[in-house]
Amino acid sequence: xxxxxxxxxxxxxxxxxxxxxxxxxxxxxxxxxxxxxxxxxxxxxxxxxxxxxxxxxxxxxxxxxxxxxxxxxxxxxxxxxxxxxxxxxxxxxxxxxxxxxxxxxxxxxxxxxxxxxxxxxxxxxxxxxxxxxxxxxxxxxxxxxxxxxxxxxxxxxxxxxxxxxxxxxxxxxxxxxxxxxxxxxxxxxxxxxxxxxxxxxxxxxxxxxxxxxxxxxxxxxxxxxxxxxxxxxxxxxxxxxxxxxxxxxxxxxxxxxxxxxxxxxxxxxxxxxxxxxxxxxxxxxxxxxxxxxxxxxxxxxxxxxxxxxxxxxxxxxxxxxxxxxxxxxxxxxxxxxxxxxxxxxxxxxxxxxxxxxxxxxxxxxxxxxxxxxxxxxxxxxxxxxxxxxxxxxxxxxxxxxxxxxxxxxxxxxxxxxxxxxxxxxxxxxxxxxxxxxxxxxxxxxxxxxxxxxxxxxxxxxxxxxxxxxxx
Length: 471
Hints:
The chain is 70% helix and 2% strand. The protein has helices at 30-46, 48-56, 61-73, 78-88, 90-108, 120-141, 145-152, 158-184, 190-213, 231-235, 238-254, 257-267, 273-280, 282-293, 297-301, 304-325, 333-361, 367-395, 414-434, 444-453, 457-467; strands at residues 401-405, 408-412. The longest helix has 29 residues, at 333-361.
């Protein structure tokens, strides 16, 4: 049988067997299509559109925190689920949970249409119940996702996979927010929210078609599987223990940041739903820069320097948001766009490098249980954080004290105080990033040199340099 003709290196088309170039297994291209439609689905029902709908029902800041924190809190069910995921199979386990989740999204589309039958508080309670079912099914089934991906993606290609996957998610999320802004308009009505939630269910159904096409993990016989590791044994592994500690601080700071930025823009700044969603879409443009900056950086220089850079950016961002909320810096449109773009960039920097480092820190033996503990510890913290910060906002609502700063007046109110506290928590996360263990990680100086000299950012700098007048 004659051999297949060699592929042209300049030909970007995928191979005929459905594989991806650069060493990815056949069929894994479906992961990116699943990621895109999954993002179109979940952004409508657990993102800003849902927060804005809850605000239209007069939800308090604590309730908004519950909505934002419900998904990560319910990831705690990965711990008991890890006992069964190996025997059921990663693919089958994830597919079952995502199917149930899509059904709950369909029921949510009916809630805004019940205004003639139920008062706002009853609709809010029903919505919380459906969100609980949606997030519970997702929390249990996600136990199989990271082990599944780790089993089918080669270790040397995981950084590239993560950046490409994030690119698809950010592109789809950007489109979802602009679609939501167009549907809601200047003055949102119940049927408009219902349309968005129905669209979420439709995209969730399409994502299942691609999820089915992702190759299953290699089967392992039950009697050949290693014994389940215990928690003390896991915590004795220094790289894993320090990664957990950093994730607790990062999740505590990051939990609810986007939710309360949206809430502040709506309640205090007085922006409309349409303008908020259009502005929020800039975060996904920030996330898209991971394809320009991190596509090869993660696998070449490691996760630790990227985590340090992300934590530093978060500190600067929270201080800036605190100044805006306190009236020290007026929130003009260009500044708002720049801040939301940087929020997406900072979140992308830390999330991608964090997941990649977890794939390295977790050993092969007992991988499902290590990933379950990693996800639960960070996600539960991420879930309780917005509830905690929502309670802080409600408790500090009457606060309004003027303080002179550099000749200007800073108003200490609930939101300026919250963003300032979050800057301190991100500072703690930065210190813990310095203590992370990654033997093959490069230095911060090497990462900066690569970004400025060898990545595609150099083209931007070259164009700026040529346009700059010289004396």
